[in-house]
Description:
By secondary structure, the chain is mainly α. It has one domain. It contains eleven helices and two strands; from the N terminus they run ααβααααβααααα. It has helices at residues 2-43, 60-89, 103-129, 132-143, 158-165, 167-172, 179-196, 219-228, 239-243, 251-256, 260-266; strands spanning 95-96, 177-178. The protein is globular and about 55 Å long. The N and C termini lie far apart (67 Å).
Amino acid sequence: MTHHILLSVTLQEIITRWMLVWGILFLRYTIVAGAFFLVFYVVWRQRWAHKRIQPKFPKQSQYRQEFLYSLATMCVFACVASLIFIARNNGLTRIYSNIADFGWWYWGASVLLVIILHDTYFYWTHRLMHHPWLFKWVHRVHHESHNPSPWAAFSFHPLEAVLEAGILPLLVFTMPLHWSALFIFLLYMMVMNVIGHLGYEIFPKGMHGHPLGRWQNSSTHHNMHHHFVHYNFGLYFNWWDTWMKTNHPKYFEAYDKLAKAKQEEIFASKTA
């Protein structure tokens, strides 16, 4: 009898946590992606026309598909996050609440470290997703957005969503992380993911000529990946694509020259 009661409470806690987390993920997605979509695709669409990466706009059917797949992805993310919350409440993770336990220096370093670790995790799992079989049956869903919009940020096949969420257990079970550092990392991930699928280049020209800016990825970088497929696998930074020689040969040219004629030339062929 006791075991049944404990099981019932556990299931109830999981369901409650799942609903709460899914709601938070939904709000974060709709607010961040929706804000960028409203600004660039509705309100100031003409004002930002000169920054448009691909001249054409996606069809309404693509927006709907991206949104629906993103809803499914959030269901998967909510499952993983809910289990992490429960594990944390039972002392099974390394998430902590008192910043004094490790100090502010570690707090700042941990935010930077998890971003770098996630960038590495993403690059190599992304390369894995481009294995012919995985691409055909799983990753193809994301690449159906040849000309992505902000709504494509979470548009994954459910199996890929599991892989995408896999970074969280790896982090929270292996390194001390303050809950606020984790929150900032997840918010940064959401914003940069939306920017990567924005369809407009919002970073300044000449950025790649700066010692630090040269390593920053851009909306152009990931947009070209959706179009050309076999290049530009990185997420936040450009170092893995640089080191592994997977940058598209025309990426820097595309970034620096966003005139419409140049866009049409660069995106004229998928074999470029």
